Amino acid sequence: MTVLTRTVGELPAAGTVHIHKVFLHVTRACNLRCDYCYLSAGKPAADEMRTQEYARLWPQLAALGPEKVVLTGGEPLLRPDLLSLLRDLRDADPEHRILRCLNTNGLLITPLLAGELVGLADEVRVSIDALADRNDAMRGQGSFQAALRALEHLHAIGFEPKVMVTVTPAGLTDLIDLLCLLTERNITRISLHRVRPVGRGRRYRRWRPESDELAAAMRLAWERCYPGRPASFEADAGARPTCAAGSFLNIMPNGDVFPCHVLTSPEFQGGNVRRQSVAEICSADSLLGDLQRLGSGAAEIRDEGLAARVRTFGCIDQEGPEYGT
């Protein structure tokens, strides 16, 4: 499948900050219970947005012009209208300027569903965090084999999936072998992420793997799988992550908007898409505008107490180093 890229220099909607990615948590429901889930997913929320509300949201997001819209959860495939949501987003963006992405644990992906996703999602990202024993202990019994089956179903129809690895202390032990196992199965689009220290992930708040640890594991796996071939990936070789708050739009199942997956306490709420337009929430004078200026070093957040809170939490890398051919 061809993956589109945004044309360099395209501008966001007039008067708004530039938003790189929009994360839509379309449900809190999940058929797994990962130890470190930043959303503490399990049961659906009582006030989740309905299909018609998303239908009103899609044209606003198309006007905003982010590079990607990521449908995530919980487990988004638990929503019976998930294909309709992707279809309506596609129809709101006829020029296909926005990449449509789906995050999933893979348990519900069948050969039929994999085929239905072609043309609706540009990227399907399946979560696997360690080899079978450790993965299932952290995520749920049978989740490792289910994720591998999902990858096989997608790969069989020519849809190259991507694996999302949330690196934990236990999972770091398996990282090299996991990367090699995936590569041997022709799955070479892999992205590494740190645990997000919120929700059930709070227990990992003090643990932060160094970027050079992750990069070293990627290099070792590459050398084992492709001896003598120059590496074709780029990895952060130890630089401390910088805060990108203000460049992401994190929309919760009830429509509340936050700047990222970590800054979700009340003082960081930037609005609600049920009550405000996306353009209003993303205006240059909004909280998101303040955060983006802070992240770029162009200006300080006017509320110093809020700025201190950003620095306290720090950034956890929305997108980690990527591995692939």
Our Rg estimate from Cα atoms comes to 19 Å
Order of helices and strands: EHEHEHEHHEHEHEEEHHHE
Helix content range: 25-40%
What structural class do you assign from the helix and strand content? Answer: alpha/beta
Biggest beta sheet summary: 10 strands, mixed
Strand content: 5-15%
Low-confidence segments, given as residue ranges, are: 1-12, 234-241, 296-301, 316-320
- Rounded to the nearest angstrom, the distance between the terminal CA atoms is 15 Å
Overall number of strands: 10
Whole-number mean pLDDT: 83
Identify the overall geometry: globular
List the helices and strands and how they pair.
Layout: E1 21-25, H1 51-64, E2 68-72, H2 82-92, E3 99-104, H3 111-117, E4 123-127, H4 132-139, H5 143-156, E5 162-167, H6 169-184, E6 190-194, H7 211-225, E7 248-251, E8 256-258, E9 271-272, H8 278-281, H9 287-296, H10 304-313, E10 322-323
Parallel strand pairs: 1-2, 1-7, 2-3, 3-4, 4-5, 5-6
Antiparallel strand pairs: 6-10, 7-8, 8-9
Helix pairs in contact: 1-2, 6-7
Describe the overall structure:
There is one protein chain. The chain contains 10 helices and 10 strands. A hairpin with a 4-residue loop joins strand 7 (248-251) and strand 8. The chain is globular, with a radius of gyration of 19 Å. Helix 6 (169-184) packs parallel to helix 7 (211-225). A 10-stranded mixed β-sheet has the order 9-8-7-1-2-3-4-5-6-10, with helices on one face. The relative contact order is 0.15. It has 325 residues and is of the alpha/beta class. Helices cover 34% and strands 13% of the residues.
